[in-house]
Write a structure and sequence with these properties.
Elements: E1 2-7, H1 11-21, E2 27-33, H2 36-45, E3 50-54, H3 62-70, E4 77-82, H4 88-96, E5 101-103, H5 108-119, H6 128-140, H7 151-159, H8 164-174, H9 179-186, H10 190-204, H11 209-218
Parallel strand pairs: 1-2, 1-3, 3-4, 4-5
Length: about 230
């Protein structure tokens, strides 16, 4: 069973999520919270695998809650819930360590599938809404001013450390493909792809696949609208 905590300031949304998710196989709702601060307290004493986190909440929003939660040892994965598919807060939450984001009107079977994906260590980056979000904000946010080595320059240098195969894998990760899909695309064993992804994250100093997607867009490795 995947243990899930629901975090949303609207009680009706939490009730609806609990009702539909508890009808899905392999998912158990182990707690609820109405803001980020309460969620952090709850998760300090409740074992959970995945957190469905609203992004806009009073007191502590989902971005800050995600950042603080992901700093903890053995922290659960976070899926951000948002009403709008072009939401800067959702983008910031990805950078803070969320494993992806979902719109609140996402069909229940897709929400359930996303929960299982992130529990397995994957990231929910495939939906077109996610790509539009990344495209929009990587275009909208200017590069840092030149003053020695900028973060963008440092990222470009790190990309040079990747092998040609790792470049291929990173481009496909940025396109939203799962390990299995990448394996089929490159005619590799899925385990080999997993090794490549691990080496990419290590070389680039990244926490997870979502950060790899963001970096690929920000450095131009994947062009906006390419996928």
């Amino acid at each position: 069973m995947v243990r899930v905590v629901l975090v949303d300031d609207q009680e009706m949304i939490r009730m609806g999520l609990r009702m539909v998710l508890e009808s899905q196989p392999g998912i158990e709702i182990v707690g609820e919270a109405d803001d980020g601060d309460t969620a952090l307290d709850l998760l300090a004493r409740t074992a959970a695998d995945v957190v469905l986190m609203d992004v806009r909440m009073p007191r502590m929003n989902g971005v800050e809650a995600t950042r603080r939660l992901r700093e903890r040892e053995g922290a659960p994965s976070v899926l951000i819930l948002t009403t709008f598919d072009l939401d800067e807060y959702a983008y910031d939450a990805l950078q803070a360590g969320a494993s992806g984001f979902l719109l609140k009107d996402t069909p229940v079977d897709e929400v359930a599938a996303a929960i299982h994906h992130v529990h397995a260590g994957d990231a929910v980056v495939a939906p077109s809404t996610t790509r539009r979000l990344l495209d929009h904000f990587t275009r909208a946010r200017p590069a840092a001013p030149e003053s020695g080595a900028t973060p963008r320059h440092e990222a470009d240098v790190r990309l040079d450390e990747l092998t040609p195969r790792e470049h291929e894998v990173l481009q496909l990760v940025a396109g939203g493909l799962s390990n299995a899909e990448i394996a089929a695309e490159l005619v590799l064993a899925e385990g080999t792809v997993k090794v490549h992804v691990g080496r990419i994250l290590t070389k680039l100093g990244l926490r997870d696949r979502v950060q790899a997607v963001v970096l690929a867009y920000e450095t131009g490795l994947v062009a906006a609208g390419e996928h």
